[in-house]
Design goal:
Layout: E1 5-9, H1 13-25, E2 29-33, H2 36-45, E3 50-54, H3 62-70, E4 77-82, H4 86-95, E5 99-103, H5 107-123, H6 131-134, E6 137-139, E7 142-145, E8 150-153, E9 156-157, H7 162-173, E10 178-179, H8 181-188, H9 198-211, E11 221-224, E12 228-231
Parallel strand pairs: 1-2, 1-3, 3-4, 4-5
Antiparallel strand pairs: 6-7, 7-8, 8-9, 10-12, 11-12
Helix pairs in contact: 2-3, 3-4, 7-9
Modified residues (4-aspartylphosphate): 54
Organism: Paenibacillus oenotherae
Domain Response regulatory: 5-118
Length: 236
């Protein structure tokens, strides 16, 4: 895994050094930045496979760095937040972050989550896809091509982040099946527990904004009241 390049941005030197140490043990190449501006400069000068951004950083905060990264890249982004920053967590997910962890955190759990994010992001270019991943899936005007990591609504290409794509991919692979928020979190975020309902709800809302003609009356990702969500529509 020596070709995996990770960016860590945090104004706390102890956290930067600790994460760099553990990630380099996994044979990842790691760069660190002490503020958002430096992180963005490194991001534009290098090809990273994943970024870890502290929410509160001097010069430029993690939300703004995440927003600017998302303008040009869909690499996995993990946000680090404090316990009392619930609103900021939601904003981070809305800006395009794929996951977040609350400080203080278990470095072993963070490394495990990083591995899960990289596994999903990199597997799109690997061999051994199933037959369903080789053939584009069509639901009316919506087309999902897992092999090409491509989503279209009619002739319009829809740009999704890595996590948004994984969630949509999971939905279209199980049309008509109802899933609770916890089930979605376990399947898409590769975790055995859900920290709160907002993570799934934010991503459902983001997907609806991108793929639905009218997000307020979704035809694809439908709410099953009291249970969760299902993907509706006839495949072609």
């Amino acid at each position: 895994m020596g070709d995996i390049h990770i960016l860590i941005a945090d104004d706390e030197k102890e956290i930067r050094d600790l994460l760099k140490k553990y990630l380099e043990r996994e044979c990842y190449k790691v760069d660190t930045a002490l503020n958002g501006e430096e992180a963005l400069r490194l991001f534009h000068d290098n090809n990273y496979n994943l970024a870890i951004l502290d929410l509160m950083m001097p010069v430029m905060d993690g939300l703004e760095v995440c927003r600017r990264m998302r303008e040009v890249s869909n690499i996995p982004i993990v946000m680090l937040t404090a316990k009392d920053q619930e609103l900021e967590k939601i904003l981070g997910l809305s800006m395009g972050a794929d996951d977040y962890m609350t400080k203080p955190f278990s470095v072993h759990e963070l490394v495990a989550r990083i591995k899960a994010q990289l596994r999903r992001f990199l597997v799109l270019g690997s061999e051994g896809r199933s037959a369903s991943e080789e053939t584009p899936i069509r639901f009316n005007r919506l087309m999902v091509d897992v092999k090409k990591h491509l989503v279209k609504k009619g002739e319009e290409e829809i740009v999704l982040t890595a996590k948004e794509f994984e969630l949509l991919k999971f939905f279209v692979s199980h049309p008509g099946q109802v899933f609770t928020k916890t089930q979605l979190f376990r399947q898409v975020w590769d975790s055995q527990y859900i920290e709160d309902d907002n993570t799934v709800m934010v991503y459902i809302r983001k997907l609806r904004l991108k793929i639905e003609d009218d997000p307020s009356q979704p035809k694809f990702i439908q709410t099953v009241w009291g249970i969760g969500y299902k993907f509706a529509g006839d495949s072609e």
